[in-house]
Amino acid sequence: MDKRFEGQTAIVTGGGSGIGEAVSRRLAREGANVIIWDINDDAIARMSDEPNIRGRKIDVTDSDAVNAAMAQDANDYGGLDILVCSAGITGPNVTTWEYSDADWLKVMNLNLNAVFYCNRAIAPILRERGYGRIINLASIAGKEGNPKAPAYSASKAAVIGLTKSLGKELADTAVTVNAVAPAAVRTAIFDQMTPEFTAFMLSKIPMGRFGTVDEISNMICWLASREASFTTGAVFDQTGGRATF
Q1: Which domains does the chain have, with CATH numbers?
Q2: φ and ψ of 10, to 5 deg
Q3: For the packed helices 101-108 and 150-169, what is the interaxial angle rounded to 10 degrees?
Q4: 77 included as an active-site residue
Q5: What is the DSSP letter of 46?
Q6: Rounded distance, CA 240 to CA 44, Å?
Q7: d(CA 188, CA 181)
Q8: Does the keyword Membrane apply (predicted)?
Q9: In the 8-state DSSP scheme, what is residue 185?
Q10: Which of 109, 108, 127 is nearest to 166 (CA)?
Q11: What are the C-alpha distances in Å from 51 to residues 17, 47, 77, 144, 214?
């Protein structure tokens, strides 16, 4: 396998499971030093046994913790090169008028605020370094809106807006900022959804199947590589034909 990331250091939030795990493993296999930021002790322990992967327990919804950890990791590794923000939750599958304040804030804190905190903390580090890659996990729900998923849809739409804004702000550097917007991918996040909602999502995909974590990680790792040098502020669909714009 190519060693596209030899000598580089990557942070992957939510790197202990799902898409984040697949990305972490792929980056590590291709030579990167990978630091996974997660809150699951078992996942951190399991992933830390892998070559080139180190786990850090951190609540990415805590801006002070994010700032401190980003500075510490940059110091420990002599700089940072890649940030992949993949930590996220779906929230309950209920209508907007049934959605509670607590559930709304919980989804927004992890899916949006945490992405902002991480992007904000690494941007000056990468800008000073003169190179870097930021990839944020959005969703087709952020472009089309899913019924009975108002907070998830709104948070992912906001991630797209944040990505486009930061990408333009850093466009005079070799730091790129992009988002990936998958349709449903079968991971543990499905446990948060009702069977009816899962069936609805499948019905929207012309290919008639869910995506795989490897398919999504392939795109993310290309965006994280030096090959993606003329792409920034963009959103890449991986939807099995669902996306129409």
Answers
A1: 9-237 (3.40.50.720)
A2: -125, 140
A3: 30
A4: no
A5: H
A6: 31
A7: 18
A8: no
A9: B
A10: 127
A11: 17, 9, 16, 39, 19
Q: What are phi and psi of 243, to 5 degrees?
A: -65, 135
Structure tokens at 146: 């899913």
240 pLDDT higher than 70: no
Other C-beta atoms lying within 10 Å of the C-beta of residue 150: 22
Residue 125, number of CB atoms within 10 A of its CB: 18
For residue range 135-170, list pLDDT tens digits in order. 999 998 999 888 999 999 999 999 999 999 999 999
Overall pTM surpassing 0.85 (yes/no)? yes
CB 78 within 8 A of CB 129: no
Catalytic residue of the set 77, 117, 131, 152: 152
Q: Measured in Å, how far apart are the chain's first and last C-alpha atoms?
A: 34
Tokens coding 94: 């209920």
How many CA atoms does the CB half-sphere of 189 hold within 13 Å? 24
Sheet holding 82-85, edge to edge: 53-57, 33-38, 9-13, 82-85, 132-137, 175-182, 234-238
Single-letter code of the amino acid located at 167 = G
Which letter does DSSP use for residue 240 in this model? T
